[in-house]
Amino acid sequence: MVPSRPSVQVLPSILAADFARLGEEIAAVEEAGAAMIHIDVMDGHFVPNISLGPPVVKSIRRATQLRLDVHLMITDPDRYIPAFIEAGADQISVHQEACAHLDRTLRLIQTEGARAGAVLNPATPVSTLQDVLGLADFVLLMSVNPGFGGQEFLPHTIEKVRRLRAMSADLPIEIDGGITNRNVADTVKAGCNWIVAGSSIFQTSGAAAAFREMQQIARDALAIQV
Q1: Is 220 designated active site?
Q2: d(CA 191, CA 173)
Q3: Radius of gyration of the chain (CA)
Q4: Less Cβ around it within 10 Å: N or C end of the chain?
Q5: Candidate list 40, 69, 90, 186, residue with the active-site label
Q6: Which residues pair with 15 in a beta bridge?
Q7: Where do the domains of the chain lie, and which CATH numbers do they carry?
Q8: Which of 137, 176, 186, 220 is catalytic?
Q9: pLDDT (tens digit per residue) in 118-167
Q10: What is the largest CA-CA distance in the chain?
Q11: What is the DSSP code (8-state) at residue 100?
């Protein structure tokens, strides 16, 4: 018998939202049933873009009770982790490629009171996380090269998901980059639990309806094991 997996969740990514209406955008997907909001933090060094910092996270925290999933795409995550947790982050993910001492960084996040996730870029093998899978609370696999929203999904990520799922039967797997209604089912069937989607939700005629549609597709796919 195939063991049951936890329900899947679509995480709207505010990088694609209208920042002039950010509170309204978050409220729309919260009302539609979202459980978590994904927040991308970029420093212009680790990735070729700059986004936002702790003050914006603090403002979002005041606007919603949703779980805040903060993804640090920065070169010195240890320096800023406490500030983001103090601002309201419930879970923080850091790149294996940016952490000289990944074990220490994951423990720092947990000590500060948040769930800790490890992130891999598209070209980084999942085998590099073998020795921290017992420590990490979740793993995020990038399905585009990080830095900009609206990129095309990299198909080889599906096989990476399968390999990671084979390494750990119950660790939550998150995926981020190029997710649409055309490929979300494939990511769930391969083993993903948390599906980050930005442009496919916020850059549509209605974020709430787009979220509900993708969430339904993901839940329908959960019943199919591959």
Answers
A1: no
A2: 7
A3: 16
A4: N
A5: 40
A6: none
A7: 9-222 (3.20.20.70)
A8: 176
A9: 999 999 999 999 999 999 999 999 999 987 777 899 999 999 999 999 99
A10: 50
A11: T
